[in-house]
Amino acid sequence: MRALTAAAIGLAAATALVLIVTAVGTPAGETSPEPLLTTVPGPKK
User: Fold this and answer.
1) How would DSSP label each residue in 4-44?
2) What pLDDT does 45 receive?
């Protein structure tokens, strides 16, 4: 019974966290126009 109670409390906490993050929304700002480098750049030509 303790495990069931702990699982229910954990599920409720996770659900509350998701709802809070959803309510707050995304932060304001802009993304960089420069692409991210995913490889080591080679010699410049």
Assistant:
1) HHHHHHHHHHHHHHHHHHHHH-PPP----SSPPP-S-----
2) 65
Closest C-alpha among 30, 1, 43, 32 to residue 9: 1
Along the 45 residues of the chain, how does pLDDT read in single tens digits? 999 999 999 999 999 999 999 998 877 778 777 777 777 767 776
Output the six-digit token pair for 12.
Answer: 């409720």
The rounded Cα 30 to chain-centroid distance in angstroms is: 17
Q: What value does the CA radius of gyration of the chain take, rounded to a whole number of Å?
A: 22
Is the CA virtual torsion 14, 19, 22, 24 positive or negative? Answer: negative
